[in-house]
Amino acid sequence: MCTDKNPDSRVLFLGDEGAKVPEYALLIADCFKIFRHDLQNDLQIVYGYLQLEKSREQVVAKLDKVTERILTASQIFNLNNVPLSCFLFVMWAEAEQSGMRFMIDTTGRLEHFGANWPSWEHQLATLWTYYRGLAVARGQKEVLLELTGEHNEWQVCFGGKGAVQIICTSGERGMRKHVY
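Given the sequence above, the corresponding structure tokens read:
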């Protein structure tokens, strides 16, 4: 529930006190607008292709792109972890803006991702920024993010075909980062 005291504030009141909205959550509305706009554009193109009687291959290719985007969004928001889903949605939007296809592979239980990793948002954002810079500089067209969650240990791996791989593991003994 937003406050009437300052309608322009970025503070949500939940219960008796206010809690600041995480920085990535402020970006999600803009990312969703772009996502929705791009889907609408793609569907308009499909409609135009059909009206112009373009080849079946062109229509199917555009529909495959739409379907892939919807499936990726569904995968992101089916993690049972709202902060992680919002964060990944923003990452996906940034990857697309950089001209990369962003794929996610998840295993294990991610609903408690980051529970014992207080700075996961900052560290994951730092890893993503570093990796995205490498990927763009090398002309990489695909990014695969693998998330694994087991008990109190999580592993985050950025990679892709023929790309540098960055692995970050969080567990009982703290954070470990590896670059391959």
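The chain has a mean pLDDT of 78. Try to locate this feature in the token string yourself.
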